[in-house]
């Protein structure tokens, strides 16, 4: 088992390293002069040459890569060309917000999707099944940035129940500790701010949760149905076990496995959806950093973002893989 | 995305070796379920709209008529006008044509490069296979949007770079799919026999692997058609895809943001168009896959109402 | 961060260079064609203030003004940052030795009440305002000014500004010609220049030349970036990164006690959200207004649109040292081919009037009597015939694929519109589109031989800031992409740069502009206005051509 873990860790490392190589090469062989970008429109040719010299842009590519890598492992990705702050800071400031959104949406999706899946599996026909059907069809085909706008219109304007975007209302103060507003609110005991944060999160979370809810509902339903057909379960029922007991003792634990797998697979999609949702609700997360960095060719920030995301993802995949192995003994490698 | 829904995650493999059905069988299989027939009909409708729609459009999709700005849906403009007085219905129709091209091109990129990669991995030495699959893993380690953004950082913004970006994003999925199918073939006895008879690797690939790889690949490509429309629209929404005044549905949604509270029709219809397109190809993709899998219903198919 | 390799890797701050000030920051994405709108306050030329609440009323004391800005400032040390968003905040915190007359780029007294300039424009003696204190209580006097200059010019100074990483600065631009700075008495400072330069006074009025408190520098060192201390109408209170910066009124401000209690600069990067906040009353002023938002703002009875002719120019550079641009008739023909009113209407939403001189209308000294080049296809064709191109001309034009502050419609769209106009005059233009930095490399090259889209935005509001870089020989090839070289023009520009008598300078610039205009090294297009939006409650807010929030002590909130 330990060998397996070590092997996976090594693979993960190689994957992340490979990502840095690809990103670095891609961004450095494109048309587009970084020195010119920094110098600005009015820089003279001499000034631009000076910038190139200072940044070592005339060194061979592998030398530049080595410099990049050795700084990167120390968390130094250079300075953002746009804001002149450390690139890693730009990414780390924004990431927690996106993470918060993704995790909350996932939680809602697991709860809602799981419930929907179970209900539609155990009551064949009727409203529940129809609802599940509807959620599934809409959830998997409606663009998240469209449903977000619709929810914004509905909740923010027609019903006027929710704010139209942002993290906090003007005038509400919240100290920043972890960068995750909910956590910070809890940690500082700032209940009014916490409430305000949650209020601002309702619409974005609902928007983002729609797709994963649909997926999880579907998988849960299929899983539960599968398990319910199992002869062992039929036997238990015949012996007089109540439906609920059968459900909770037997069906659910087995149905859990595919859901866990799905959750692991969903995280990438979730993060992508979070970026789009953030744009609709003007949340200052990774989405904004990413789009601005690409439009202004802010290479340090793009590199920082790519590498950090790769690291996070590799870690998550690793955890999912290992927990999968733990959950299902059959799957564990010999 | 939808492929998870139907049991095909980005790292999925086909269940069995399906046999390509005959044409009549195909039609029957495709329309077996009501929903699948619906999917086929919807896609046909979309294709028709893409081919003929722009010719029937009442107005020029990019001509401005500023005296008619921001008109709600009416008899003159069935879907209303936007902030430049452009007829939204005409733009939606023009966008349909773009959407079909988007799906086609993204599919082409993903299918070609993905299949190539997958076949190479399946029929090469083990270390080549390992390297290729590690690269595929790397790409799969990523949120698709960030990956697409990196490609756009390289190629620049615009509709074509966005389409290529999304195509690239799905290369790993096809690579895995094709590789699995090809590997399965490689182990078959008739392939061993063919090898013994001296048939070269290329021959084996062409004669035996491809027919086996084709069905799941086609099914996946159908699903991907709709998804790529959705994802390219997402890039357009962020401002990284099609640029104004191109009537791409995602870009139209981006434009509609300023008016979300005052002119709801600007954003409602493009989004609806995207949703209908994706749904159509999801249903059709489901139908195609079911048709090919007619021999062995998968787990998910056994429940009714699926 | 901050270790040795970081120093080596990136120190653009050591470079002092001019930086392009964006007109509409951060939005740029959906620059599209707009249509004619009802026009707003129209520009009249220099000397006219443009602003909110001209309807008057008695100023009410109190209230917090919330200004939406498109991105966070990246530092609040005026000599070390060139970020517009930082400038918006710093213009309320700091004063310069000189200042701009409200709403213009003409020079007025600032922290220096008056000054004497030697006839050869090399020695400036500043008579400082008495009784002024920095926000931290330390006195503003000659010692303070000398200490301030020392930090900028003396490399041995322990807090030498240039030792910071990742800064951008105008110090070279403003003070590069300074030879010495000395205290004459408690309220007099003498500055000597290496060479005569009349633009020093204008440069001192820029927000990037704000006077910082030496006591604060001693206390915070480079932390001054986060703890700004100046003499301005508002005092720094707090900066919550990526969220807001709060300032409170300086009751002892030498220019008069501010009416407002507080100013909050709210960071709202998303343009649509910012507009929604303005309409909801969550913010009072919108700094960046994209042209497509203009209509919505105009239709809202609670909002007002503030505009001012911009300190920007836009055109097509015609390299005069290559055929066929060496023939003046061809250059003039190209000017007569373009319908600039149409461009204004369809590409710029009516917010970019055609240029009437080689400099922007809001620039002092700009010519108002030059014969314009309205679209006249007959004349264009005739000129081309005379020049020997009666059978048509095939040309290439380079454009960039993004938007710029001086071109919110974007290079591609503008290029396409121009192509259509040139076609009507019998000139076939092939557009070649380049990514921004590749475009810069292409057009700022001595070897450029094709037409290229070009533009410029002013930094200090001095005519020399436009004329020399764009049309002077010294500006070739970076700013002067047309490679225009006229010794008579150069002579006059050099001369005007060294005369301190403004009316004389104006005379000289009038002469020079006529020559340049007739020679037509550019196809001159449109000059985009500066546009802001505010709630109707906001009064006394005047726009400044340099786009900074000067004079905030005069702003008040009505009902």
Give your account of this protein's structure.
The complex is a heterotrimer of chains A (334), B (306) and C (559). Chain A contains 13 helices and no strands. Chain A has 334 residues and is mainly α. Chain A is globular and about 85 Å long. The mean pLDDT of chain A is 81. With 306 residues, chain B is an all-alpha fold. Helices cover 68% and strands 0% of the residues of chain B. Chain B contains eleven helices and no strands. Chain C has helices at residues 4-9, 84-93, 142-153, 171-175, 200-205, 214-220, 271-280, 294-299, 328-337, 340-347, 377-386, 411-424, 436-443, 464-471, 487-498, 502-519; strands at 64-69, 98-100, 107-109, 112-117, 123-128, 178-185, 188-193, 234-240, 244-249, 262-267, 285-286, 303-308, 312-317, 393-400, 427-434, 451-457, 522-524, 530-535, 538-539, 556-557. In chain C, strands 8-9-10-1-11-18-12 form a seven-stranded mixed beta sheet, with helices on both faces. The model of chain C is unreliable at 1-49 (pLDDT under 50).
In short:
The complex is a heterotrimer of chains A (334), B (306) and C (559). Chain A is an all-alpha fold and 334 residues long. Chain A has helices spanning 2-28, 34-39, 45-55, 61-72, 87-122, 127-141, 144-158, 181-188, 191-228, 231-238, 243-281, 286-295, 299-327.
């Amino acid at each position: 088992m330990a060998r397996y873990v070590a092997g996976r860790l090594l693979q993960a490392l190689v994957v992340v390293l490979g990502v840095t190589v690809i990103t670095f090469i891609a961004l450095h062989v494109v048309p587009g002069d970084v020195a010119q970008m920094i110098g600005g429109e009015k820089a003279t040719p001499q000034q631009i040459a000076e910038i190139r010299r200072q940044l070592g842009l005339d060194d061979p590519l592998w030398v530049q890569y080595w410099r990049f890598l050795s700084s990167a492992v120390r968390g130094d990705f250079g300075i953002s060309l746009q804001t002149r702050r450390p690139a890693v800071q730009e990414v780390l400031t924004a990431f927690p917000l996106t993470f918060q959104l993704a995790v909350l949406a996932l939680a809602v999706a697991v709860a809602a999707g799981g419930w929907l899946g179970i209900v539609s599996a155990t009551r064949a026909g009727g409203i529940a099944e129809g609802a599940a059907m509807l959620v599934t069809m809409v959830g998997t085909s409606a663009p998240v940035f469209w449903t977000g706008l619709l929810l914004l219109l509905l909740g923010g304007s027609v019903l006027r129940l929710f704010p139209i975007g942002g993290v906090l209302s003007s005038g509400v103060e919240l100290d920043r500790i972890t960068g995750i507003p909910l956590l910070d609110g809890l940690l500082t005991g700032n209940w009014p701010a916490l409430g305000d944060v949650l209020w601002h999160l309702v619409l974005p979370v609902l928007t983002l949760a729609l797709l994963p809810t649909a997926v999880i509902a579907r998988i849960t339903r299929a899983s539960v149905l599968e398990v319910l057909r199992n002869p062992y379960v039929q036997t238990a029922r015949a012996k007089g076990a109540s439906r609920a007991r059968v459900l909770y003792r037997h069906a659910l634990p087995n149905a859990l496995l595919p859901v866990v797998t799905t959750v692991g697979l969903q995280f990438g999609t979730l993060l992508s959806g979070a970026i789009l949702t953030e744009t609709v609700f003007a949340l200052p997360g990774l989405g904004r950093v990413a789009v601005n960095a690409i439009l202004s060719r802010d290479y340090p920030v793009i590199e920082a973002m790519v590498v950090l995301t790769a690291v996070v993802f590799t870690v998550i995949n690793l955890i999912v893989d290992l927990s999968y192995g733990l959950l299902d003994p059959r799957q564990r490698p010999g | 995305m939808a492929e998870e829904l139907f049991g095909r995650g980005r790292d999925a493999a086909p269940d069995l070796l399906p046999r390509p059905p005959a044409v009549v069988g195909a039609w029957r299989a495709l329309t077996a379920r009501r929903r699948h027939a619906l999917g086929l009909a919807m896609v046909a409708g979309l294709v028709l709209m893409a081919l003929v729609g722009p010719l029937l459009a009442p107005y020029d999709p990019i001509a401005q008529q500023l005296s008619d700005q921001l008109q709600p849906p009416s008899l003159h403009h069935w879907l209303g006008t936007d902030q430049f007085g452009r007829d939204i219905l005409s733009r939606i129709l023009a966008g349909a044509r773009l959407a079909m091209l988007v799906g086609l091109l993204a599919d082409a990129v993903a299918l070609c490069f993905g299949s190539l990669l997958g076949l190479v991995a399946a029929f090469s030495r083990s270390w080549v296979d390992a390297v290729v699959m590690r690269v595929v893993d790397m790409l799969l380690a990523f949120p698709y949007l960030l990956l697409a953004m990196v490609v756009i950082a390289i190629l620049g913004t615009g509709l074509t770079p966005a389409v290529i970006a999304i195509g690239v994003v799905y290369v790993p999925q096809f690579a895995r799919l094709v590789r699995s199918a090809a590997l399965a073939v490689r182990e078959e006895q008739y392939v061993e026999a063919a090898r013994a008879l001296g048939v070269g690797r290329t021959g084996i690939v062409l004669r035996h692997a491809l027919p086996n790889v084709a069905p799941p690949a086609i099914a996946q490509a159908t699903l991907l058609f709709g998804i790529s429309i959705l994802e390219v629209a997402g890039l357009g929404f962020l401002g990284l895809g099609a640029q104004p005044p191109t009537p791409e549905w995602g870009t139209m949604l981006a434009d509609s943001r300023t008016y979300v509270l005052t002119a709801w029709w600007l954003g409602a219809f493009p989004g609806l168009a995207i949703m209908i397109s994706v749904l159509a190809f999801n249903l059709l993709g489901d139908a195609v896959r079911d048709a090919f899998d007619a021999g062995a219903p998968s787990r998910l198919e056994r429940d009714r109402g699926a | 961060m901050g270790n040795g390799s970081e120093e080596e890797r990136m120190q653009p701050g050591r470079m002092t260079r001019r930086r392009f000030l964006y007109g509409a920051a951060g939005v740029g994405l959906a620059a599209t064609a707009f249509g004619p709108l009802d026009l707003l306050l129209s520009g009249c030329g220099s000397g006219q203030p443009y602003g909110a609440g001209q309807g008057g009323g008695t100023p009410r004391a109190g209230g917090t003004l919330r200004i939406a800005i498109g991105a966070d400032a990246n530092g609040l040390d005026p000599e070390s940052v060139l970020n517009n968003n930082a400038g918006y905040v710093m213009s309320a915190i700091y004063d310069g030795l000189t200042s701009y007359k409200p709403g213009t780029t003409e020079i007025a007294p600032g922290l220096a009440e008056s000054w004497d300039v030697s006839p050869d424009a090399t020695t400036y003696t500043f008579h400082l305002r008495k009784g002024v204190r920095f926000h931290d209580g330390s006195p503003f006097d000659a010692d303070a000014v000398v200490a301030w200059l020392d930090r900028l010019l003396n490399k041995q100074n322990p807090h030498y500004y240039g030792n910071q990483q990742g800064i951008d600065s105008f110090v070279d631009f403003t003070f590069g010609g300074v030879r010495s700075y000395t205290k004459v008495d408690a309220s007099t400072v003498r500055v000597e220049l290496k060479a005569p330069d009349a633009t020093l006074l204008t440069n001192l009025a820029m927000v990037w030349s704000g006077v910082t408190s030496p006591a604060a520098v001693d206390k915070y060192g480079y932390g001054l970036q986060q703890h700004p201390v100046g003499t301005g109408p508002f005092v720094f209170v707090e900066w919550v990164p990526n969220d807001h910066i709060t300032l409170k009124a300086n009751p002892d401000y030498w220019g008069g006690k501010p009416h407002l209690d507080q100013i909050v600069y709210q960071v709202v990067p998303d343009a649509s959200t910012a507009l929604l906040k303005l309409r909801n009353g969550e913010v009072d002023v919108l700094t960046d207004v994209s042209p497509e938002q203009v209509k919505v703002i105009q239709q809202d009875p609670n909002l007002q649109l503030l505009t001012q002719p911009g300190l920007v120019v836009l055109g097509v550079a015609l390299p005069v040292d290559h055929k066929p641009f060496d023939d003046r008739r061809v250059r003039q023909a190209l000017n007569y081919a373009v319908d600039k009113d149409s461009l204004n209407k369809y590409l710029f939403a009516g917010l970019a009037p055609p240029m009437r001189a080689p400099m922007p209308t809001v620039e002092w000294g700009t010519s108002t009597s030059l014969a314009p080049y309205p679209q006249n296809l007959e004349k264009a064709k005739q000129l081309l015939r005379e020049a020997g191109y009666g059978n048509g001309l095939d040309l290439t034009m380079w454009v960039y694929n993004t938007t710029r502050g001086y071109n919110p419609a974007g290079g591609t769209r503008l290029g396409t519109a121009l192509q259509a106009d040139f076609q009507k005059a019998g000139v076939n233009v092939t557009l070649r589109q380049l990514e921004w930095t590749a475009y810069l490399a292409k057009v700022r090259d001595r070897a450029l031989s094709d037409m290229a889209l070009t533009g410029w935005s002013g930094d200090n509001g001095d005519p020399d800031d436009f004329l020399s870089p764009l049309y002077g020989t010294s500006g070739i090839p970076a700013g002067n992409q047309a490679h225009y070289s006229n010794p008579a023009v150069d002579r006059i520009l050099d001369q005007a740069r060294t005369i301190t008598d403004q009316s004389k300078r104006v005379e000289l610039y009038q002469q020079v502009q006529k020559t340049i205009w007739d020679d037509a090294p550019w196809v001159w297009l449109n000059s985009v206005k500066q546009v802001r939006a505010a709630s109707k409650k906001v009064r006394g807010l005047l726009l400044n051509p340099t786009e900074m929030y000067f004079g905030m002590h005069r702003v008040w909130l009505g009902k």
